[in-house]
Amino acid sequence: MNKKLISFSSLIDEEVKESENKFSQEKQTFSIVENITIPSSEDDLSSEKEIDYTKLRDLLKAGSWKEADYETYMVMLQAVGRKEGDLRKEERLNFPSTDLYTIDRLWTKYSNGNFGFSVQKKILLRIGGKSDGNYQKGAWEQFSIEVRWKVNKDWIFYGDLSFDTSMPVGHLPRRVFSGTSYGRYTGLYLLSHRDL
């Protein structure tokens, strides 16, 4: 009986040692994982054109939607080398990809997925629009109503827009699409043509 107890005790000791070894190995593996660079919660403000997106990020973070909308317009002009006016067709077509992605990512992040160019593109595609860079009147009309840029048959002037998260998904950004109505819809189609 005593031998059985000693044998059983030895077996338990071996299992404890084995468990300790496994734990030690797991702990060592965990230590190695700790040294891997994990992306921080900091925003990637990358730019092909050396644009500083700090102000845009801070405005979006604060929920200052109207100011962020205007800042988006300004940094987009800066990215194409201009200070005023509407973005031209060729500028939208050739807009720096890294900058477009940075702007969109900031909008989607700080609006919890409610706003941004990629959000607008999804709406456009969902309602039957194509992301081929060409204007499609029916899809554009439906999109404008859905994001509340148009109510019934009337366009809402930029100054009359609401700048808060109670607005429909895709409502912002908007300022970059201002100008002539042709400029508005070609702008959205040309940006939706891009990978986001």
UniProtKB/TrEMBL annotation:
Sequence ranges assigned to domain GUN4-like in this UniProt record: 47-174
SUPFAM superfamilies recorded: GUN4-like
InterPro entries: GUN4-like (IPR008629), GUN4-like_sf (IPR037215)
CDD domains recorded: GUN4 (cd16383)
Gene Ontology MF, one: tetrapyrrole binding
Superkingdom: Bacteria
Protein name: GUN4 domain-containing protein
